Amino acid sequence: MQQIVSITDARNNLSRLVADVSQQDTSVVIVRDSVPEAVLLSYRRILETEQAKEKMWRLRFDRMMAAGKKVGRRWAKKRGINLDKLTEEKAYELVEKA
Prior knowledge:
The structure is a single chain. The chain has helices at about 5-10, 15-25, 45-80, 90-95; strands at about 5, 30, 35-40. By secondary structure, the chain is of the alpha+beta class. It is rod-shaped.
């Protein structure tokens, strides 16, 4: 359950808030003048969030690379370029001409 506290309460009760967040896997929103300014989360939750973001980024990257390879193969086929026999030097020449 998410808790909302003022910045003054957070400062005065930081030790207890950290213990609650860590033990109960909750979050604390810290407000200043009734405006949310920060969130206190457990370290475990942050790690899980970062790992999930990294996994999603890798998935999107892999999809983009697969789509790029598909387009590249079509482009090469239209121009009669055999990618299996393409040398590095020839690849650089093609890139420079593009």
